Amino acid sequence: MTEEYWSRFADSYDQNQEYVVGRVFSNKIREELQKLTGLGDVLELGCGTGCFTGTIAGKSKSLLATDLSDSLLEVARTRLRDHPKVTIQKENCMDLSFAPESFDSVFMANLIHVIEHPQKVLQECHRILKSSGRIVIVTFTSHGMSVWEKIKMGLRFAKVWGKPPEHTHSFSPKDVESMLGEAGFVIEQSKLLGSKIKALFLVGRKS
């Protein structure tokens, strides 16, 4: 159902995202990603239309961008067709096809809060990461937002996306830190981005 939900919006995904959270906030996330260095061979989970893929690729040796939606992947292929470091492939983030210790880093943006079993995804990330590999997570949250801003964002979301996926979560920094710890990661960085709209930004290291 999650694949079907997001595939409906392939042609309007970027515009919808911008309407809900704003271009300025998306650019703030890109600015934070620009600070990363030495990511090596990267696996991106839930790449969607590839809105953050190019930014991460610039910090990588190579990047394999994956998603469960064929429709979103087609948009990403068009957007990134001239990017020499990027390969695009369909994958289920809860059951990855890769051998253990295949990647130096894993990146996911706005994925962990809309999937049914986030802990299972983190366990898969730990499995496919090399020793001391990094995981980078960006995910929207209502944590720290005022009641009024939550209402406004909820109305904007409903207008363009409709009813949220059944398994949507709103995690606090401590929630994600705890899940990462349980999956075998040591937290290197954890912060809350934004003023009115919020996102969590975390970096963990495979222990």
Give your account of this protein's structure:
With 207 residues, the chain is of the alpha/beta class. It has one domain: Rossmann fold, CATH 3.40.50.150. It contains eight helices and seven strands; from the N terminus they run H-H-H-E-H-E-H-E-E-H-E-H-H-E-E. A seven-stranded mixed beta sheet has the order 3-2-1-4-5-7-6, sandwiched between helices. Strand 4, helix 6 and strand 5 form a beta-alpha-beta unit. Helix 2 packs across helix 3 (23-34), helix 2 runs antiparallel to helix 7 (147-160) and helix 6 (118-128) crosses helix 8 (173-183). The protein is globular and about 45 Å long. It starts with a helix and ends with a strand. The mean pLDDT is 94.
> Unreliable segments (pLDDT under 50, ≥5 consecutive)?
none
Q: What is the correct CATH architecture?
A: 3-Layer(aba) Sandwich
Fold-level CATH name:
Rossmann fold
- What is the spatial order of strands in the main beta sheet? 3-2-1-4-5-7-6
Main sheet: strands, sense, barrel: 7 strands, mixed
The helix content, as a percent range, equals 25-40%
> Secondary-structure element sequence?
HHHEHEHEEHEHHEE
Distance between the termini: 34 Å
Secondary structure tally, helices: 8
Identify the overall geometry. Answer: globular
Q: What proportion of the residues form beta strands (DSSP E)?
A: 25-35%
CATH homologous superfamily descriptor: Vaccinia Virus protein VP39
Q: What is the residue-mean pLDDT, rounded to a whole number?
A: 94
Structural class of the helices, strands and pairings? alpha/beta
Count of structural domains: 1
Compute the number of strand runs: 7
CATH class: Alpha Beta
Radius of gyration, whole Å: 16 Å
